[in-house]
Amino acid sequence: MICTAGAAPLRLALAALAALGLAGGCLAELERPATPADPQSGLLAWEGHLREVFDDNIEPAAVGFSLEGSSPRSDPFLRERAQTADVVARVRVNTVTVDSIGEQSSYHLGIQVGYPPLATPRVPDRAFELHIRPTSRAFGIAKAIDARLRGLIFIAFIRRFAGEAGEPDIHWHLSPDTAEVAAAVKEAVALGELAAP
């Protein structure tokens, strides 16, 4: 028989174990490797949750549109971006070109990867072209700033996904180049390395 004084701590311990079991199940679900969309390249399709993580977006604070930047540690996807991106580094926008077809425009940012990277790169490429389509989250920022994007420096998270024509599709996220973001990225990368088998 359990006395009433010991019942509360026991209930608390059982609730904690139940929560850990549920969280463990959720973590196991997240850690289960997805099936590659392209078996030859091993690249995943850019769909579902991955569209949120690598969202083709430029954070407003990175271009001075936000006076109050939120803490990078409050970004629910920063850790996952840092641990799963092919390239995590400071990048400089070297070129900005605009393609217009009728009323529709799309932007192409030619970026150069800085050295040293914030995480060990998984690809040797040092230059990328980022596409900003009218449906991209960054389109409003690109349209507002246009050619003034040239010369800006960001912390970039770049990942290759399976493309429709067999060529890899690049998807990305650009964060402000601040010491706080860099520290959060390095912390996330270190945690990922500690957790690796």
Order of SSEs: HHEHEEEHEEH
State the helical fraction.
Answer: 25-40%
Question: What would you report as the Rg, rounded to the nearest angstrom?
Answer: 21 Å
The chain-level mean pLDDT equals 83
- Measured distance between first and last alpha carbons: 44 Å
> How many DSSP H or I helices?
5
Task: Tell me the fraction of residues in β-strands, as a range.
Answer: 25-35%
Biggest sheet, strands in spatial order? Answer: 1-6-5-2-3-4
Low confidence ranges? 1-32
| Number of β-strand runs | 6
Shape: globular
Note the main sheet.
6 strands, mixed
Q: Give the helix/strand class.
A: alpha+beta
What descriptive keywords fit this protein?
single chain; alpha+beta; 5 helices; globular
